[in-house]
Amino acid sequence: MVRPRPPVAPSDGPGLFAGCPELIGTPATYGREEEIFGEGEEAERVYRVMQGAVRTHKVLSDGRRQITGFHLPGDLFGFEPGETHRHTAEALSGTRLLIFKRRQVERMATRRAEVACQLWGLATRSLRHAQDHMLLLGRRSALERVAAFLLDVDQRLGGTGTFDLPMTRRDIADYLGLTIETVSRTITQLEGEGALLRTGGRQVSLRRGRMHRLVEV
Amino acid sequence: MVRPRPPVAPSDGPGLFAGCPELIGTPATYGREEEIFGEGEEAERVYRVMQGAVRTHKVLSDGRRQITGFHLPGDLFGFEPGETHRHTAEALSGTRLLIFKRRQVERMATRRAEVACQLWGLATRSLRHAQDHMLLLGRRSALERVAAFLLDVDQRLGGTGTFDLPMTRRDIADYLGLTIETVSRTITQLEGEGALLRTGGRQVSLRRGRMHRLVEV
DNA sequence: CGTCCTATTGAGGAGTATCAACGTAGGTGG
DNA sequence: CCACCTACGTTGATACTCCTCAATAGGACG
């Protein structure tokens, strides 16, 4: 969730891949919790979010799950250097995607350097997000994790300070490497310290100054 | 450390960038613990390890550190999508590098799609490593982390099962999101369970069957 | 209104961090 | 060549964060 939105806006046009008119995507819709692709499946398609949201995750055999990222409109996902997907991807809610043939994109990338550069940029931005998240998972407390997460969601949803969390406590917990109980308790604690207000349902209103002080560098 | 070696072998030639003869790197050597670049500095160079090893890390203001990766001969590092480095890079020991001008590489990438594709492949492989590491940091126990780490180092150093750890306990701890004491205790525990032998200094000899059983999926 | 799923809260415990002491190895200067 | 010094590593005692298990409350939907 920390990843900044890539500069590829959905307004590039309904059928375009990263501004390349030769690549036309096939529209598709997915329902809440529906799987888009599974870990281990052949990676023959590439996806672009048009509406809704997608999460990608990895699981261990005993069910422990780590969400590696949330994908919002404009984001591309599903690229793999190898032949198979290393993640499972699922729609968070009703979601519209554009599907591209991976071979077609790769062939285009070998011909048009700007497409290949865009792919590189996308991968590098994802990498930066992943590295920031490693620091969070390896070295931050539960309070810092939740505060950083809430600030990030706020920013991605417009930065007004008041918003509805688009995911469940389970998703948040599996993204932050915590349990749902710890997430819940931490939000309660943040409310007790006056760093946020719960204004009904999943809506929260942040005191961004106080929140930032909890995260610091 | 988990990242598999990229297919770009150092034997590509002393001055070549990813098989591209137009790009000639400048050789440089760095001593133990010497900084190669710092977080926040302008990212105008790109590096390739020829000999030795490099670690990249991020730090919080209070000193908490997360090592995001170790780079061995053949690996490229230092790429950034933005203008500044998001990491600090330091040599683990006496290390020989090849330095490339970032602008030059990018210009070459816009002209030659195969260079851009190589950059994409490098970033994507790093991303895969980062995502595997997120699962480790977010959801694995200390025992699993250390066992996975040792198996990975063994594999990267030839897979014989017996090797010298090329980094200190502090580096291991900061890579695995643990403390040096926990790393030390966990290695002792692994020895007690007959999953490895300490054969003097930093050398260890793994019982890979037992180690693998501890890591599973 | 009941059912199911999600979220909150509490009590207790496991796992890892922290603080401290001691042991070991490698390098330096006498 | 040896003694010292410093950095690294191990082990122990204790503390604390976060997890686990359990019960309750709140919302969405039929």
UniProtKB/TrEMBL annotation, chains A, B:
Keyword DNA-binding: yes
A Gene Ontology molecular function term of the record: DNA-binding transcription factor activity
Domain HTH crp-type: 140-217
Domain of life: Bacteria
UniProt KW keywords: DNA-binding, Transcription, Transcription regulation
GO cellular component: cytosol
InterPro entries reported in the protein's UniProt record: cNMP-bd_dom, cNMP-bd_dom_sf, Env_Response_Regulators, HTH_CRP, RmlC-like_jellyroll, Tscrpt_reg_HTH_Crp-type_CS, WH-like_DNA-bd_sf, WH_DNA-bd_sf
The keyword Transcription regulation is annotated on this UniProt entry: yes
Gene3D superfamilies: Jelly Rolls, Winged helix-like DNA-binding domain superfamily/Winged helix DNA-binding domain
SUPFAM superfamilies with a match to the protein in the record: cAMP-binding domain-like, Winged helix' DNA-binding domain
UniProt domain Cyclic nucleotide-binding: residue ranges: 30-78
Protein name (Swiss-Prot/TrEMBL): Transcriptional regulator
Originating species: Methylobacterium tarhaniae
